[in-house]
Amino acid sequence: MIFKTPEEIERSRVACLLVTKTLTEVGKMLRPGLTGKEIDTFAEEFIRDHGAVPGFKGLYGCPSTLLVSRNEEVVHGLPDENQVFKDGDILSIDCGTIVNEFYGDAAYTFCVGDVAEDVMELCRHTKHSLYLGIDAAREGKRVGDISFAIQQYTEKVGGYGVVRELVGHGLGRSLHEAPDVPNFGKRGRGPVLKSGLIIAIEPMTTQGRKDVHSRSDGWTIVTRDGKPAAHYEHSIAITKGGGPADLMSDHRPIEEAIRNNPNLKEVDNLDEELVERYQPMAMMGE
Question: From the CB of residue 252, how many other CB atoms can be counted at a distance below 10 Å?
Fold first, then answer.
């Protein structure tokens, strides 16, 4: 594991907040009839106009700036002109940037139009599990404590599936650093969390069975039973003394864009106090 200096954490924060700004602008655009290709082209231009580089494009051969996954697609969906958004869709939109050699990474599931209430509930539970995982991410704890918090709530309380094949990860000069951060596991297991560690926590939750497979494009991961999946992600830094983690990405501007877009449906917070505990520094330029 690579532990970052305060200066390196701030460099990564800038990259994470540019991801936030990008997803916010995408949230303003989203509507039925729009295509994945259109938002991907916009996102790449927006990131480059801010003097940064898309974090995903070209990495491992990825052809796009965004990863856009619809409904039964869990993650790694490839946006193109054939990916036309429809009323009732949910869209996991994952974005990465590189600013001053450091990566930023975050994701949000957007609900387009009249999304069914049971699917909205899946999104609410998945987003809540993200904050439970963040709350468990404290110096002296272990990765398994994060994993347990997410799994326990998702499976035992929500009755949803937790994908096993895909995990969160460390973040820094590389998009994927040690440690892996699974969304399932046992308390007290795994690497010890220490201050200076940056990790991306990203629950991937299914409405039905947890089993997934890859489509023939070699990228898109979908549920085997065809039921919808939700995905939310924040990047955080572990702080000294066992205090609350330092949230580096920001969902608040994204959610403000959602509230102001009549084509989108807002996913409520299940615990406002918990979410409020984890709010990052102000956006760039504010």
Answer: 13
Q: ∠ CA(188), CA(221), CA(136), 5° rounding? A: 20
Residue 19: phi and psi, rounded to 5, are: -60, -45
Predicted TM-score of the model (pTM): 0.96
Q: Cα(183)–Cα(120) distance, rounded to whole angstroms?
A: 20
Q: What is the pLDDT along the chain (286 residues), one digit of tens a residue?
A: 999 999 999 999 999 999 999 999 999 999 999 999 999 999 999 999 999 999 999 999 999 999 999 999 999 999 999 999 999 999 999 999 999 999 999 999 999 999 999 999 999 999 999 999 999 999 999 999 999 999 999 999 999 999 999 999 999 999 999 999 999 999 999 999 999 999 999 999 999 999 999 999 999 999 999 999 999 999 999 999 999 999 999 999 999 999 999 999 999 999 999 999 998 764 434 4
Q: How far apart are CA 92 and CA 77, in angstroms?
A: 9
Q: What is the DSSP letter of 84?
A: B
Q: How far is CA 196 from CA 4, 5, 88, 170, 189, in A?
A: 5, 6, 41, 11, 20
